[in-house]
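Input sequence (1075 aa), recorded before submission:
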Amino acid sequence: MKKTLMSATVLGILCMSQLSYASEIQKDFYVAYTGNRPITKVLEKLSKITKTQVFYSVSDLKDILVDDDKINYASLSETLSYLEKNYPVEFNVQNNTVTVRRTANKNEVIPKKVIKSSFSNLSKNDTIPEKEKKIEEVVLIGYGKQNKKDISGSISSIGDKDLKGVASGNFGDMIAGKATGIQITSSNANPGASPSIRIRGIGTLTAGANPLIVVDGFPLTEGTNLNSIDPNSIASIDVLKDAASTAIYGSRGANGVILIQTKEGKKGKLEFTLDSYYGIQTRSDNEKLVNAYDMATFMKEARDNNYLSKGPNRSASDDTATRIAKGASLRELIPDYIIPYLNKQPGLTNTDWYSTVLKPAPISNTSLNILGGDEKTKYSFTGSYLNQKGILIGTGYEKYSGNINLVTNVTDKLKFGISMTPSFAKGELFDMVNGGNTYNPLLASTVMYPFFAPRDANGNLLISQQIKMNTPTDAALVENPVAIAEMTKRKYTLFKTFGNIFGEWKFLKDFKYKASAGGDYTSYEYNFFKPSTVGSYRTPVPNDVTSGSRTEYITKNYLIENLLTYDKKINDHSFNAIAGQSYQEESSNQITTLATGFPDNSIENIAGGTSFKIDVNQYKWTLLSYFTRFNYSYQSKYSFMASYRRDGSSRFGVNSKWGNFYALSLGWTVSNESFFPKNKLLDPLKLRFSLGTNGNNQIPNFGSMSLMEKEYYVFGGILAPGYRSSTPANKNLSWEKSESTNFGIDFSLFNKYLNISADYYILNRKDLLLEVPVPQQSGYTTSLQNIGKIRNNGLEIQLSLRPIHMGEHFEYSSNFSFSTNKNKVLALGNNQTQIVTGVNNFSVTKVGGSIGEMYGYNILGVYKSQEEIDNSPHIAGTLVGDYIMEDLNGDGKIDTNDKKSFGSGIPKYIMGFTNSFRYKNFELNFTLYSELGKKIYNGSQMNNTESGEGFGVPTQYYFDNRYNPQTNPNGFYGMPNMNFSNNRKEARTSSIFFKNGDYVRLRSLKLAYNFPSDVVSALKVKAIQVYFVGNNLLTLTSYKGANLDANSDNILTQGYDNGYYPVAKTYSFGMNMKF
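Predicted structure, token format:
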């Protein structure tokens, strides 16, 4: 019901916008407003609507008033022709630029001041040629650009305007909901953490699932933090989704390709753009833990129920001495310190630890962009400084980033260019995955009881208080989360720079040769230090020791490419062909040093330790490639593309070093046919088809080799060090192969005001990497082999509404994206039908199902009497208050055969809805983002209520809905019990903790005011805008956990929420100035 309600909400909003649109189309559309207004305003609006550059002198034209009601429904050519005929102006068109100047009439003198001097051959009767009337939209493709009308593959484009509505340090916030087929998540929302990006689902089990990121033609190294790219330097983002678009990248294209184009210089005077904002981040999650009084009730119920279940003649009113006398265990005793809370004594310590460690935090960013150039040289420079404190205390992120683009034409046939993107970041973070409760204050806050305060009356941190108080009753033994955050050091630095240089030579009229060389250098350092003055999980001060660690690595990546391009147009035939060669190499060295035995807490350098453990990791890989592509178009009616790439990789086995990848696509613009009726209702109409292959080479660098590991053997009674083979070699190990088929249609309705694009794709992935069991006599347990198969298929629909003008001052446009994805496992290893993994084996990947489905028992309710237990199938040891499990196969018993799948953490539907409004000088735009049809395993709630040493702190929702025969007989969560019966252990992976993860989120909202032109002119600047931006302001969901984006790093355990860093809600105010 809730899922249906959310879907209806989003679709309802869309329908409302379309109803508004429908009411508008009853009277058709126009490109300008009605009534007399200055011609400069008409030209300004004309430029904005048609995306054409229109140049004119404001001072020369400002007194000309135009009755623009006469140019309703007019095209660009018709509009300019009308203006030239009826007013003292004339125009010239060159490429995509229109220049307008004033002419003389019988009462006027021609002004000498003009913007361009290219009017000497302009006739008063000139009109715009048909071929120049249409402003072509160009998109990035691999190793080049192409007119969008000639594209026959599946590409989603996000322009500069779409990227401006977000004030965030996270790259993912910029593109979420802006294009079809793309899932953006922040399972770890640590400041500076890179977002997770999935294109058309997940098509692998153990290899990498990240798309290839290409910035200004340079393919970034795997695992690159996308936040190292300055968002203010990005001009456009194009997402390649089908094989026809990605096959040119061969063995790296199976997960999709994201092409990022940074801003380029332009001819003219220097243009400066300064943008700065300041904001506050707060929590956006629904996690609410119980207060101290409810916690005391919960603890007593759990310990009482455990005590009462162990024998007769026991009473919940028995005191500690009586319980001990009757043989009670530590977990059946009531801690003395909770007695005042049970008696409802007022004024007691009542700490909300979750809110204590999650605090509002500031974020600020300042960016400067400089554009300029002349006839020969164009340049762009962007520099930014971001300072983001984390909402989790003890975390933060600072980043200095920039981008430089320079292109110079030495002659009309030879040009050189350079693009560089450097960044330096530093910050503090916690290990959200592997740190557990020991050094992670967020997880510790869900186990730390509200009976204890973070500080004493003098403001001093209270150290190990809960550990010491709980040891006698075997309750949760965790350190003060605030002490963990403030007393441990977890600092890192990250320096990264990448870019390339190129030279391009045009020859023989239609040919050009381009040679480029690029590099990517990354240096990372992480330092951790924990003094002995703060405890760790189960170890209080002064029993704990000082420890420290240091991790550092340097990664170097080099790229050399040669590209030959042929571009020719013969009458109605357009040809484009490329042939190229690429060589890329990467090497990395990583050293991790662990140190203990520090004699003094004041020495935080690991050199101060006396005992060390050193781990060294090194790798190197190379990739040699040859590729070609041919494009053909006839009258912009028929288009054809074919590509081929051959990759040789050091990662593959000696028998599989080389791979071949191909693709072809066809496009037919039906509306350009002579038989297609010319109309404004449906035009244009285009059909697309593509198929092809590509690969995924994100496999282990040495996966095909037999690796050695250190081992000790006893020789003559002496333990001697040596090495043994730990993995078998596989000479045939290869990349994961992908076969893609795509059917697409593009069309426009109502004089091109409503543009619709739809794609249906089938993506088959085979030769998946799996660890396959091998005979024991081989000396190994498993072997890495190419053996699995997966299919992803789905539908993508994008609706774009061009600006609608209502009255003189109001404008509206919108974009809606809808994507489906069905993931199905077709085959696993030999004689293998499923893979069960994850915490408590909650995840199953089986043939016929989806990747990483939630797997466990279906809970029907709670046992309320012993009679109910005796009269139904149950697990031995089941108690009153435990869960009723469905006997799925009806065999009269509860065992693993009764487990079932409950859905996957991979969403079935993704929606985005962007709306833009303008009224006079005000602008409003917002983006809704939604994921539907996914499950979340609330592991944090499970850990705190069904496992652990004496429970953590339950959520208020869990507490309010627990079963209690006296106070809550209709509760659906099990009765608290420290017994941890087999029933409760099995229920840890069951429907009771597999939650609906559907949500609709207001991902971004921007309200802006543009200063009037007279104010701007008086201030001697070009434009000033002040704005408010909100991110993640509102979320509609039934999920009560911390993070709706919850995902582990393991592909097979998607949707696991273990209390990861929650996504922040942000309120920012800023100003943008051009001068």
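Checked by second reader. The mean pLDDT is 88.
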